[in-house]
Amino acid sequence: MPDEGGRSDSTPGPNARWARVKAVFLDALELPANERATFVQTAAGEDPALRREVESLLANDAEAGSFCEIPAAAFLGGDALAVVPASPKLAPRERIGDYEIVQFIAVGGMGEVYRARHVLIERDVAIKMVRPDLADDAARRRLLREARHAALLSHPNICTVHDVHVANGAPFIVMAYVDGPPLSEVIRRAVPPLRDAIGYGAQVADALAYAHAHGIIHRDLKSANVVMSAAGQPIVLDFGLARELPDGAVAQSQGSTLTAAGELAGTLSHMAPEVLRGGRADVRSDIWSLGILLYELVTGALPFRGRTPFETSAAILGEPPAPMPRRVPLALRLLIERCLAKDPDARYQRADAVRDALDRVRRRHGALLVAGLLLSVHRRTIAVALAAVLLFGVLVAGAVELRARFNTALSEPVSTLAFLPLGNATGDPRAGYYADGITDALTTELGAAGDMRVLSRSSATRAAAGANSSAAVGRALGTDVVVAGRLLRWGKRVVVAVQLVHSADGRVIWSDRFERDGSEVLALEADIVRELTRAMRMTLRPGARERIAAVRAVSPAVYEEYLKGRYEWNKRTQASLQAAIRHYTRAIELDPTYAPAHAALADCFNQLGTVLLGGGSPQSLRPRAAAEAMEALRMDPSSAEAHAALGYVLHYDWRFGDSEQEFRRAVELNPSYSMGRIWYANLLMSRQRMPEALAQVFAARELDPFSLIVNTNVGWILDRAGRHDDAIAQFERTLALDSNYAQARWRLADALLHVGRTPEAIAEGQRAVALSDSAPLSLLLLASVEARAGQRVAAMRLLRDARARAGTQYLPAASVGGVFAALGEIDSAMVWIAKSFAERSNSIVYLAGGTDNPALRRDRRFQALLARVGPE
Amino acid sequence: MTADGDRSPDVDVSVLLARWSGGDRDALDQLMPLIYTECRRIAARQLAAERGDHTLDPTALVHELYLRLIGQRSATWENRAQFFAVAARLMRRILVDHARAHHAGKRGGDALFVSLRVAGDTPTDAHAVDVMAIDAALERLGALDPEQVRIVELRYFAGLTVEETAQVVGRSARTVKREWQLARAWLYRELRENGDA
Hints:
The complex is a heterodimer of chains A (about 850) and B (about 200).
Chain A: H1 14-29, H2 33-44, H3 48-63, H4 73-76, E1 95-96, E2 99-107, E3 112-118, E4 124-129, H5 137-151, E5 161-167, E6 170-176, H6 183-189, H7 194-213, E7 226-228, E8 234-236, H8 248-258, H9 273-276, H10 283-299, H11 309-318, H12 330-339, H13 351-370, H14 373-377, H15 379-402, E9 406-407, E10 416-419, E11 423-424, H16 432-449, E12 453-455, H17 457-466, H18 470-477, E13 481-490, E14 493-502, E15 508-517, H19 521-535, H20 544-549, H21 556-569, H22 574-590, H23 595-608, H24 618-635, H25 640-652, H26 656-669, H27 674-686, H28 690-703, H29 708-720, H30 724-737, H31 742-754, H32 758-771, H33 776-788, H34 792-804, H35 813-822, H36 826-839, H37 844-847, H38 854-858, H39 860-868
Helix pairs in contact in A: 1-2, 1-3, 2-3, 7-10, 7-13, 10-12, 12-13, 16-19, 16-21, 17-18, 21-22, 21-23, 22-23, 23-24, 23-25, 24-25, 25-26, 25-27, 26-27, 27-28, 27-29, 28-29, 29-30, 29-31, 30-31, 31-32, 31-33, 32-33, 33-34, 33-35, 35-36
Chain B: H1 13-21, H2 25-48, H3 58-71, H4 77-104, E1 117-119, E2 126-128, H5 131-144, H6 146-157, H7 162-169, H8 173-193
Helix pairs in contact in B: 1-2, 1-4, 2-3, 2-4, 3-4, 4-6, 5-6, 5-8, 6-8, 7-8
């Protein structure tokens, strides 16, 4: 019976008539076809027109077939709604940049995708064009940002993005060409065996974890976006919809400009409920998509099915996934269901957690299958096979790393280089120490590798701070080339992307990306040094090749501590040195065989024992420094740092000959090690070999033109060499770098005094005191200046102030003696100098060469004491 | 600043929908350009996606349109039904406009129809269907039975299933199925009698 519209209307009219027709037609439809004619005849009664009308409509209904059953738009072709003219297709053999089109592959979200080949190196790639209509500034910016991020992704299960190019104004992305069927196709043909399915899932999860760890979400993960490589590995394609993970602030203020917030991207069947509702995609919506993918992998079907998107979206929003077959292990079912929790908070929060859970399922499942047979009987075989697999993996990884992006000719040999601080692309500012540490290490290694001059990290850092291009830094530093790069870490992997830039014209000579496990970071550094020197066609120094080849593994935790130590060391304050010592000590506890930590620890003990820092008695610190330096050398005889640290100890231990031998060896091993040269210069100065001292200190300044310590020491040695005016000019240059550098100020005060500019000397001394927070050493140095300027009262007051602080701070005895000597109180002076002598203070070695305090120098006791300095 | 085209995209679509369903005919005219702009954007993206066949999935389009314009704000069954009704009418307008433009662009007045190949139940069961003719026939049907026109718009232009259509028009699925059957028979006859099918 009709449930509505079946009532006849007593008033005739088109609508009333239609209502009659409709009522009879609908009632007739309820009947079997062969009873309809009789029914219509009866129902129409006295109205033959009504009968004919209904019969006609029934006849047409029977004939209509699929008429109108398929929506109109499906046949109009896309252009009904498209505002976009089809972009001009590139024909096969057509050139775009350095690539020749092989064939058209598909139309992607941003534009067309082609298979192409690099014309020179004949490498097959996939090229993703940006649609001409999208090639406005916003789209271009988005593309470049996307590609720049994607290019830093290097993972065996992620399709590698090689580069971004522009040809005829149209940007295009070059990525690896992966030849294989989409996973969706693989699943459609046959559901993979469970073990394979879990394996594929774990690899995709690992790829996601890797991308998430440096801020990229996929947004459109689905089986159609995963290709099975010829090697049977799933490769995740198309991070084309991926955006940077917005941090809170950016999302709030710029959400609408960066990307239309809530924009629906992704494919409905794989879309998370919160995204379907218009929410923002995040790591957890990727986990949802991963859950769908896993479901497909193990069951061959989708968990949320509907005949239309309407039904599908209703299922996604409100229904549990369709039950999985019993053959799927319970643990796996639970795992997938957890990925598919409607509430993002109830899902796994990280992709690596899914990967680990899959691995556990696989192990359990695998154990059931092999039932201990292989594992117990053929344990050795498996170990060998595993080793082979690992080795092969390393070889493949190596091959990938060594592939240079491009390489243009370098006509002239490189004689100077600056390694700019690696950009910290981890997204975590706290990880800055890691990038700094790697920069430090690479600078050192490059310096040791060849005859080229490598500017120190501190100067490169300083020059890079204000510059707007790498080449500009190179020009400011006067180097032939600069190396610039970025560092990324995610999980256990470390990736460094570097390029070699010509300073004169900014040309990129070479660029490459290196990636290794964190435990192989030393090998990673060696890779970079090896490839950089090769790119520069540089001849390696004797021993350098062996050194590079002999890199060993270091545990990431150890290296982490080491780099944190370097970071603290570079700050050069008493507190930072104490912190550095803690980090190095921890590194050594974890791995007593790690030589660089021992050498660095030796440096810390050495610096802490100087009067400048006053961090402890040199007598107690020096043996510890010596022990660490020797330990470092025992494990790595080619360590320039360890030789220099040992030379330093020996210098202040008055074993001048041995010390010089160590310094010479250090400079030989790494001619670019500026601190080694500075300490060597100090030895030469204390032995009054001024021309040699100046040669070393000038060489150090070339290597490290912006270093405050280096520049101050140049001035100090010039002053001691009697070149007072040059020294004053040098200190002024140093203070132009940093006017708050106290050490340069009190050395300048000395130099000014030497040329009779007494009031200026006092003023500088006072500034030094203010800058060093009235540290005892600064007070004593000012006291000496005042005393020599004849200001006895002021000198005595300063001396009293300094001694008052002795309870809490180290009081350098030699400096107290210096004040008494300047005051003409030679007896008191000798008491303190003897005390300093007993302490074996660093200052003692410099007493001989000085010219200040002639009255003291004439004293017989002083001369006797000097004679005892040194075993010679 | 009275031109509809200048209207901010932030105009609340659900407010306009409520006004329209409350009898404000102007509201529909205000809604159309808003939805149309969005519709074209979604369609452009849909076409760009790796479908390969260069066809639209109108159902997906309308659903996405809904989620974009209303979903985030206030999703209720009432405004959902209103929205789909508007979107279906809009789709009809767009597709007919397109067919007309296409028609005008083809060999002057020679071509009477914009021929659309309809893949039927069997590959040989192909019909030439004129969207413009269906549109004209729907105008005539509207004089008899506006409700059936709504159902045709939802089914044929917006691509909804019978069940979805039933939810939108607030009738039982069974009723919609039979109403649709009648409308289809009626339209089929109209087109055939006019030599259109």
